[in-house]
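Inputs:
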Amino acid sequence: MHSTPKGPASPTRRDALKLAKERNVRFVRLVFADIFGVSKNVSIPASELEAAFDGRVTFDGGSIDGFVRGEELDMVLRPDPSTFALYPWSTPESGEARLICDIAMSDGSPFEGCPRTTLRRAVEESQRALEGLQIGVEAEFYLFERDATEYGSTRTADVGSYFDFSANDRGEDARNAIVAALGTMGIRVASAHHEHGAGQHEIDFAPCDPLAAADNVLTLRTVAKHLAAGFGLDATFMPKPLADRAGSGMHVAFTLGDDADEETMLYVVGGLLAHAPAATAICNSTVNSYKRLVAAWDAPIYTVWSERSANALVRVPPAQRPRHIEMRSPDPACNPYLALAVLLGAATDGVRRATLPSASFSGSTYELNERERREAGIAVLPKSLRQAIVELDGDPVVRAALGDHLYHAFRDAKLAEYESYRRAVHPWEHRAYLRLY
Amino acid sequence: MTPDQLVEFAEGLGRIAAAGGGATALAAYLAERTGAGVLLEDAAWRHVASAGARSLPATARGAARDTLATLPVGAADAPSGWLSVVAPKGQLAGLAAPARLCASAIAVEWARDAGGTRARRRPFWEALLAASHHDLSAIRDDAAARGIALAAQYCCAVLEAETSEGAPPAASDLRALAAETFRGGDIEIGIVERGATLVVFIPAEREVDATRARTAAQLLPKSAAKRNASLRVTGAFVGPAGVHELGHAVESAESALAIVRRMYGTGMVCAAEDLGAYPLLYRGASVEQLRAFALDALAPLRAYDDKQQTELERTLRVYFAAGQNVKTAAAELNVHRHTVFYRLRQIGEITGRALEDPHDQLTLRLAMAIHALHT
């Protein structure tokens, strides 16, 4: 169920300065995302807020993954005043707020490697083709028992499943606290519920503009981790923490403008499907992501769209107004700015080139055989991060959505990640081979 | 460039064009004379050629504009491609004049190529339509001689257009619209004008090609109206057929078009297979043809009933017999009326026919009547 809420007007620079004063803010975290979508921040005293808005807060870009180029060390943080919010754990004594920032070069020009700027550009380029587009993100995550081990535990605090009420469930209490906290930060949550796996939860954001949708994911990851700890839990957005339970996805729902007709809907679906294999590298950006994209738990594995199939890549609920198109492959460990940028690029390309999808599918896509897939023009999503990068290399539309700098930085980093994973010896290999050979 | 250098540059372009160098050679000449990187893309931003030592983006669309300038090739409102030059900041302005000259020369080259190719290939499609080839190998030989790569199968669309004032639009308008709508893929489409009707052959090597062609055909009246609000396109579409069967496919499409005009009016393109019982009523049919129609229309329901042990076909028969009264049908079937509603929804999904649509309802009613009378 989705509506298009009209929230309060976003704070302007003047509003943010006024609010900071009224709410006795002492420190402001200037938050930005690195190329992996990991939240980074520079903390400034509230007295420096005006200087920050003037673009006078710099940081050393050379120490952030993916930002490095010899001459690009000094970078400027450009706070977006509409993102000003007090952290829910802020007290009158700590007075802590945040602002999400774009990153600029020291001469003031936009930094090509800034994921948020990349999404901003993709939004601008999509505006003519997809006027009035809003994005609703549905993020899944697990809450595990917190312990002192190096990597954390995978024990859950409950045995619930889809939409369950669980009595005395700390997971549910934590989820409610997360939803309430997001509300105090001005982020509208449409709904939240227990997901399929024990310890697995889902939070659905109300549709909003794409930039805010990506900001919301960044905020959710920070808030969930912070608040879950208070309940003795660890929140993880890792796509597949347990082999025998459902993975965590991050469905991205495109809500088209009121004027969008059937034709536009088909072209958006066509664009998303055509570029899905290449977009996978960005939307499913870890080696672990590909353990979720298997024929189980309704995860998508083929470039199929459907009105009803639970495991199609793109789902379009029939006769819904405004038109609602759900991309089901992304996972919550992705960089939300880059994921939305490439999905917008794919959808916009679909509209510009009038790309039609294959016929919609009903039933379980897992039953499709190779001949049926070939005839219907259905591709298989990459099965590994390495394959996904090969697909990315061959898709100029997705590469253009990223821009040259981010494409190369992301590609190099992910190839290194894959190589490190490939060289590691995993527990499965010990179990299978150690005594056998 | 000075005016003299520009003249010299234009003469160079002329020499290359006269020697048959083509668009790629023209782009390379621009790169060589200016030192810029040059990227040539078609109207859909697909790569055509690149030249020059500078590193070029994969596509100029959406690329940063401070070191790259893009010009339309041909008319700015309907370009046949895009020519982009990449040079250091500050040098782009000086490249504007030679780039424009080069874009114009490429536009002329492309227009000449398209005109020549069309003229050479048109007779093939006309002969195919007139069934004047002896056999399949004659068709293939003729196609090869004219540089046409034939697909194994083609879908066929017949289209007519009129303006809101009732007058037919220029034939070239409809041809351009069809060419744009059904473009894509490595194998070209065939277009033949038959009086006011345009016959389009769309390659369909795979099922997905036919699906896309059909969707594109159905969307065509809307896309035409977006382009020109007074344009109304009416047409019919027939699914894939072998090259030697295309004459028959066109006949089917033309009779489907007549049905569309009479039963649905103008401003829509229908697939012949969606016309249900109307082709039988329009052309007349033998008992065998009637049986085949009924079997075909009811086959999805029967397959589902067999597989899932349901009784959807019986439910539909009882529902029609009860004058579409759900309560009476529920009593007859001995189920709750909610179950009847649920089954009717299933029937709609499985047959792909909307029970509330009078045309679809007629098809199913007739199929059931034929089944009762002839089996």
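The longest strand of chain A covers residues 134-145. Flag for discussion at group meeting.
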